[in-house]
Amino acid sequence: MNPKASIIIPCYNSEKWIEQALVTALSQTYDNVEIIFVDNESTDSSVAIAEKVKEEFPSLIMSSAENIYPHCWDEPRSRGFELMTGDYVLVMGSDDFLHEDFILNNMRFFKARPDDILALQSPITGVHSNTGKTANSIAHSYKSLQEFKEQCLEKCPVNTPTVMYNTSLFRSGLLKTSPEKYGGAADYDLYCHLADNGVFIYPAPFWLGFYYRWHQDQATWKVQKEQTNYDVMIQERWRGKWKT
User: Fold this and answer.
1) How far, rounded to the nearest angstrom, does the alpha carbon of residue 127 sit from its chain's CA centroid?
2) Model-wide pTM > 0.85
3) Cβ neighbours of residue 187 under 8 Å, at least 6 residues apart?
4) Which of 65, 109, 207, 212 could bridge across to 79 with cysteines, CB 3.0–4.6 Å?
C-alpha cells in the first residue's frame, strides 16, 4: 500500500472558501489520504458547510480547537497532529485549494527519496478572490542547507501552506511552534528551527498543484499590519544563534 498522507485544514471564519478547500482535498487522485477539518472557534457558517460536505464525503474527520493566538493556525494544527494517522502531512489554508494531483505529485518526490526528503515545499499559483483568475506564481530556490539558512536571515523562503512533512518530524518533536512569541509568524521560526536541526525543506522545482487565494482577510496580511515586527525578531534570534 502507498504511504498514507494526512491533510489538516484549520479553519477560522472561511465560509466563502471552505467548501472548495475541503472538496478539492477530498477529491485527490492519490489513493491513501485522510482529511482532517479543525475549526478554530469560527463565528460564521464554516462548520455548517463542513458538516454538509461530510454528508457527501463521510470519511471527512471533523474536530475543533480553542482560538488562543490571533492570525495563526497553531492551535487547530496541533489538534490535527494529534488526530492524524498518516506517514506524511500537509497543513493547508482553509481559503486555498488543490489540483486533484497535488498529493500524488508530492508523494512522487517522497517515494523517490524516502530517507532524504523529510520536508517538501512547492511553488504556488495565486488566485484573485474577486475574479477567480490565476495570478503570479511564487517559488523559492536554494541548493543547500547553508543557502537556505542565509535566506532565512533576510526573508521567509518557504511557501508555508504547500509544505508537506514526514510525520516522523512531529513524533521527534521538531514541528513544535512558538505562537506565544511569534504569533502568526511562528512558522517562519519553525523553518529556522528545522534548519538548525539539519532538516532540509526540499524545494520542488516546478508547480505541483497548489492554488493560493489572495484576499483582504488573509491572516498573512493581518500579521503584517500588527505593530510587532515578528520577522525582524526571528531574524535577529537566528542571526545570533548562527553568529552571522
Assistant:
1) 17
2) yes
3) 156, 158, 160, 177
4) 65
